[in-house]
Amino acid sequence: MINSVSLGSNHYDSSISGSPLVTSCLIYLPSVLGCLHHLDDCISYFQNAAFLSTISDPRRALSVQSLARARFERYRLSGQLDELELSILHFTEALYLPLPWDIRPPFLNIVQILCLLTIAIVLRAEESEQPRAEDVKFCIMCLRYLRGQWHDVPNLLIDIPRPVTGFLLGALALQVQLEARDVGRDHIEEMAELCDELLNSNNSLESLTSPIMAFARTVPAYLRTSNRWQIPSELVIDCLRKVTMR
Question: Is this model's pTM higher than 0.85 or not?
Answer without folding.
Answer: no
